[in-house]
Structure formats: structure tokens, C-alpha cells
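Ticket #4471: structure export looks truncated?
Reporter: QA, pipeline team
Priority: medium

Steps to reproduce: submit the single chain below to the structure queue and open the exported record.
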Amino acid sequence: MAALTMRLLISFAAVASLINAQAAHNAYVGSKACYGCHSAIYQSFMQTNMGRSLTPASDWKTDRLPPEATLAQPGSSHVFAVSHTDSGWVESESEPGVFSVDHQLSYAVGSGTNGLTFLIRRGNYLFQAPLSYYSRTNKWEFSPGYEHVDLGFSRVVAEECINCHTGRALPVQNRPGAYADPPFAELAIGCENCHGPGDAHVKSLGKQAGAIVNPAKLAPRLAENICMNCHQGGDTRVLQPGKNFIDFRPGQWLFDTAVILKMPLQTSDQKEADLLEHYSAMQASRCFRESGGKLGCLTCHDPHVQPRHEEVAGYYRTKCLTCHNVQSCSLPIKVRAALNPPDDCAGCHMQKRSVQQISHSALTNHRIPAREGEAIPPVSQNEIDGLVVVNTPPGRVAKLSKVMLLRAYGELSLKSADYQRRYLDLLDELSKTQPQDAFVQASLGHKAFAEDKSEEAVAHLKFALPLDNAGVYSELGQALGKLGRSDESIEYLKKGIEMDPYDAVMQKTLILQYINLKSYVEARVLMEQYVATFPEDSFMRDLLGRVSR
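Actual output as written to the record:
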């Protein structure tokens, strides 16, 4: 058995090597290039939720969405509104008698099954709009995270988020929220998201071996990496050195691009998360365990097909009956027949549950419990350095560099005091063993800045400049300002603002440095630009009003 397993792993490695070699010399062509030979599959896929994952906001008319809504921000005098105008959908933020700002909605994210959230463009930057549409309530309400905090139109769209809702995003590296013009090479999820770049396949008319990835012909665990990229969350993801989130290609192990990490599940923890935990939940299911690993995402899901609502129960029951039989269910046939819909296996064993992170939304429980409330079974966890590595390839030992661990601990430190301690201990170690690493220097600088040790912060942050990171420029500029070195502060703040022109803290700090230098004309010009960009900032608006008298 061990010899067979090794032969299979070698075979899978050879396939992956061939795919990687092809991908290195391949290009994207867009889903429409697939239509000529695969028209039926193309047309079917375009009707699925994935095929409608990102659309122009103008595609959604008032016959499908409420034409307007107004919501007051809790604990604030600000009011948010959405309306449909002759030019399309518009969202606004205002304070009666003080300011009002409108933004055209450019893109709708989602198929509408759970709801829609919207994106606006400010130059070449993308931001999430504060109001979203929720299908279950048929209402406009605050977008996730906006319910209790006024984020205005300042939440940038990160590439790691939008990648799973679009065919192919075109982010500008090291520029938070910045994208090419246009920002997407293909709007909705398309053929190449799962099959890889198609240029070589199209040019060879489908005759070149290995020119395209067919997930159905991959080993289940390798194929699942395609699904896992978007349908398996975790507590954090850490990029491999030199990688970006857009680097992953179908047929590769996701681990070689990004490592999905979770905090270990405690034996007393019986709370299940449904948001993007499909892969982990499936692996914890009895169905998966008793299949000997044969069960995979494609066992039940055909990405090209989405059954109509009235067909769902029967469609997935057929999938269940490939492993089970009619007698497998302990419920009497009469009881099953009385269900609505009847004989709904998934309705009983994969019930939808509300998602805490997203209001008015529900996702399917992929653990497939036999009975409601069934305890979570003991799950083998690939734990390393206090973290569970979710996506370790079969037969490989997960290894994380110390700097990758530092990144992970840093992100988890806000969730757990234990990881905060681990972060600080590891940072102290790396300050001695890898002081030449720019990320380590940036972390040391951030720590010193938070502790108001400005001289120390400046020393570290200057060593971190090779990262070309807006956050480094921001903290370096602020630390220099605290030391009274306004000329130097301005130099670095300008570089940071060039990278991230919608960072309010950097802009306000820059204004302050010009005031410190008594360059009042420059300061006032910047204040006017700031208020035009951030009219919701009452402090700066009032300050500008005083200096304008």
C-alpha cells in the first residue's frame, strides 16, 4: 500500500510539473475564447452563481432591487443613502446642512443569491460602498463591518478578497486598492479560474497535451486546491516568499503560493464556522473519512451546472445515492415523503446556518452531520509552531520560515494574547538572527513607533524602505515629525501618499508638518484637497473653516 501511495504521489508530481511548465509559457485568453468548442458548457456556466459573480452595477435594475433607501449611522449624525438615477446607482454620505458626497456605483459583487455589495472607483482605486443589498430581507442595509463604524467610502478592495469574485483582477502591486484601467481583465469568474490560462490550448485547437487543466482528471486533493483557494478560509493566510495572491494556477498546490493557517481547535470548542470553511468541514465529515479520501468537491459539485431551486433536493439526493441507498436513511419513507421538499438529504444533513460575519446570509454546513447538534469528531490537525496548516500537500511536511511565522503571529495577535506573546518573542529572536530582513526591520520599527520610541523607530524603518510599503513610509514620516525633522518627514510622507493617496492619517500628518515649517500656503492647499477627499472629517473641515476666515 505504501509503495502504491508513493507511486501515485510521484505521478501527481509529474502531472503538476507538466502543468507548471505549461503555465509558465501560457497566457490568458478569456472565457469567450472557449465558447466556440464548448458552447453548451459555456452557456450553462454563465447561468451559475460563479458565472455571475461580478457584474457592472448598471446591470441591476429597479425591478430587481429597491430603488432607494436611507439609513442613519448609529452613534453618528451621518446619513447614508442609495438611489437609482438616470446615470445608474448612486450611494451618498451626508450630514444635513454640513456636507454631502455622492459616489457612482461601478460594480456589483455577488450573484444576488445572498445579496450584493458594490464597488466604487476613485481614480484607479477601488473601494467598497457602505450600503449593500440583502436578498433575504429584500432591503438595502449596511455592508458587513459598517453596522457600527463609519468607514465612509474608505475601505479599499484588497486583491486577496476580490480575486475570488472576479475572472481576473489586475491589481497594482504595493499600492493598496489600486488597479489597472480597467481593473479587471474579465469580470465574473470564468473558465480559466479553474482550468488555467488557455492560450496554448486554444492555439492547438485542444490537441496539445497538458495545455489546459481538467480538474476532473486531477487527484481529488490536488483538484480541491482550486476550490480551496476561494472556499476555504482560515484565521490567516501567509504568502510564500516572492509570491502574490494572483500567482496561483490550477493544477498547482495552493501551499506553494499561500499557506492557510488556523488556530488549533480546542477539544471544548464545539462552535462551527461556516464562512469559507467548506474544505475543513468536508474533511471532518463521516462521509469523507469513510470514503477513504475518495470523496472530494467534484463528487457532489459540477461547477458548470447549477440546478434550479425546485431541482436542488433531487439533484443532490442523486449525488448522495452514489454512495448510500434508499435504506440508509432511518426516517420512515412516509416521513421523508412529507418533507418539503420530499426526500431532501442535503436539507436534513447539510442545513444552512446564519453567518455571523455577514448579516442576513446563510451558508451550507459541509460537515454533513447525521443529526442536528452532532458533536464535532476528533480531527487530525497538522499543527506546527502553534498553528494548524490547512493546505499541506499530501506526503509533504509543512515548513514555514521564521519570517512567515512572524507575519502569521502578527495578524493573529489581535485575536489572542498567546499569539501576541509568540509574535513579540519571535520578533526579539529575529532581531538577533535575521536583522538584515526588511520585514523584520519594519516590524521592529512598528513596535518602536507604537511605544513612542521615535528615534529607534526611524532607525529600523529606514532599513525597511526596500519593502516599498506605504505603511513604512507613513510611520517613518510620523516618527520624523515627532522628532521635529519636518523636512525629512514631508519627503517620506509624499512617497507614501503617492502609493496610497486615500490614507487620511498620512495626509493629515503631511499638513501638520507644513504648519510646523510655517508653510501656511502649502498647508491650506493640502487642507482644501483633504476636505474634498474626506468631507466627512469634521475636525479638518472645522479647521479649514477657521483658517479661511
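Status: closed, not a bug. The export was complete when the record was re-opened. Leaving a note from the reviewer for reference: The chain has 21 helices and 18 strands.
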